[in-house]
Amino acid sequence: MKTQFAFLLALIITHAASADSVRPYGSDTGLPVSERKSGTEYMSPATQQMQRDDTQNPAMLWVANGEVLWRTAPLEGNGKSCVTCHTDAKTSMRGAATKFPRFSKSAGKVITLSDQINQCRTGALQAAALKAESADLLALEAYIALQSRGLPLTPPGDEQTKQAAERGQKLFTTRIGQLNLSCAQCHDNNAGKRLAGAPIPQGHANAYPIYRLEWQGVGSLQRRLRNCMSGVRAEVPPYGAPDLVDLEAYLALRAQGMPLETPGVRP
Amino acid sequence: MASALIHMPSTAKPGEIIEVRALIAHTMETGFRPGPDGKPLPRDIIRKFECRYNGKTVISAELHPAMSANPYIAFYIKVTTSGPLEFTWTGDHGFAQTEQKQLLVQP
Known about the structure:
heterodimer; A: 267 residues; mainly alpha; Cytochrome Bc1 Complex, Chain D, domain 2; three-stranded mixed β-sheet; two-stranded antiparallel sheet; 11 helices; 7 strands; B: 107 residues; mainly beta; Immunoglobulin-like; five-stranded mixed β-sheet; 8 strands
């Protein structure tokens, strides 16, 4: 009886020890630069081609729509449009998308590119904010981000954004949900392997908003994050929640220096 | 939503074979997926795509529920004379869209 108990105890201890021996996550902001891979590299040649060729990329439908919205004053606004202040997006928006999330003095918090678009709409244009994840907001975001295609991500180094990124990193490495998994367990510890049939990418957010074939449409980084959260059966925060912005800030730091690929295509 | 994007050269030589790429925004709702209330969402797809070159049909295709949203159709045509290329998509619930592109054929 006593030996049986000791055996059971030993079994429990080895089990606990193996759970502890998982290598510590989040000791830095991601992989060494030379080992970082964009999600593109994990895709099939056909999907890569779809992203590379603008005439095949379905996200260009959103971009074309965004270009129209850039020049069109919202109906209920004061007659101004994006172009009134920012003129031609091709020059004025070059590099803009690589600098988000960032701290906004007027908002008093760290904001994303879509927050910035809505801040302009409710401020300068005196119009209603666009709904999170709406086709128009994604279109504008895709059009603005396209102007920075190929430029390296340069997350701003202000104190508030840095703090947001730190909180985001903590979230990235915290186990959540009924499956009790953290982002890092897949995207740091098992990147390059497969989850069921699908390859696990390293988790670099350098192509958003993306056209995801599974979605049959364009979606934001926050949609992707919420997707993963519901995948591990965790409580999913609403769009624009501070946790999602913090995660975005961390992911920007994680992908710092990688070229922006917007509009990306993902399987 | 932006409607359709068509990519093709604007000029070509007589007898040349050119590639035409047509991408259109459409949900292509299959009619088999359940909506939030559990009932199937009504089918809403493009049924037919057609391209006419100088009034003559050069390609005509039937589309079905298994096709992806925002269908992309690429094809090749041999060009002889200048003229308009007219693209039409027709579908469920009276969906109809027409786009036109001019092609200049010269030696």
